[in-house]
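Pipeline run #58 for the internal structure catalog. This entry was flagged by the ingest filter as a single-chain record with no existing model, so it goes straight to prediction. Upstream metadata was stripped on purpose; only the residue string is passed forward. Reviewer on rotation: M.T. Logging verbosity set to normal.
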Amino acid sequence: MEKQQTILVAPLDWGLGHATRCVPLIHQFLNQGHRVVLAGQGVSLQFLQQEFPKLPAVALKGALIRYSGKQNLFLDLFLQMPKFGFSMVAEHWRLRRLVKVWNITQVVSDNRYGLWNSKTRNIFITHQLFIRLPKSFKWMEFLLHGFTRMLISRFDECWVPDFENQEDSLSGELSHGKKRPKNLRYIGPLSRFQDFQPTEASSSAVEIPDVLVLVSGPEPFRNRFQQQMELRFAQSTEKVLLICGKPGNELRVTGCGLRVVSHLPTYELHPLLKHTPKIITLAGYSTLMDLHAMQRTAELIATPGQTEQEYLVEWWKYRNRIESEK
């Protein structure tokens, strides 16, 4: 029997996606008899605390990423690079204290490059091994990919939540380039719905709308997208449910048939994803893994200027996985 490990799980606080895809891993660790400590900040940590209320949770600050949606994402992030560099160093040193206090033996970091420690086994989770840049910055991709490989090499393993065969993959070239990290391991898609077993009571208690809108991503763009969707369906005669992607219990009824909720737990969201006739969502990778797990189609919208999502929309069109729109 494998010796019990104390595993720290820390997702990037960029919407809820990095946290939601950690859910099946946490269940797996617990089923294997390991101890799990949740770490993070913002809505991602709030989400994990709601999903696993009995697990210990600690604050572990990282970069506070903001994206306006008014220019391309790369330029927005490039202007925040000094802050990212400082945050990476700061979270690395904060981790040293947590490792000592909680006797951590393994660290699972979802897209947080500074979370590795010389005294633990270190796992890095990402689907973006080969980040795509806007056309005007394409010449920088080679340098960026090399820098990314260097950062990932500090970890013992790099887990990619996708299929190894590119033709079957959900992320395409984002995780299937030529010069891959030597510590790479494809672990298959991760979705909190993949092994979820709904009860008859939880499924029957949920009212199924005509349209389900999933809002996600960093502020302030997340809020702008929500406002656009509320305006789109303000006068709709259809029953529309808009989920804001912000853990909480807020419920608003606006317009004719539009309901807006801040967040829904997994057991309530599962029947909605399964049975709602039409789904509208941004093309975040974690959401795509959820759609794959549920075998659903959706209207996909790429975040303006976010080359990752623009590529994913085109890749899913090419693979005929879903009918998608920008």
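catalog note: The radius of gyration is 19 Å.
catalog note: The chain is about 35% helix and 15% strand.
status: ready for reviewer M.T.
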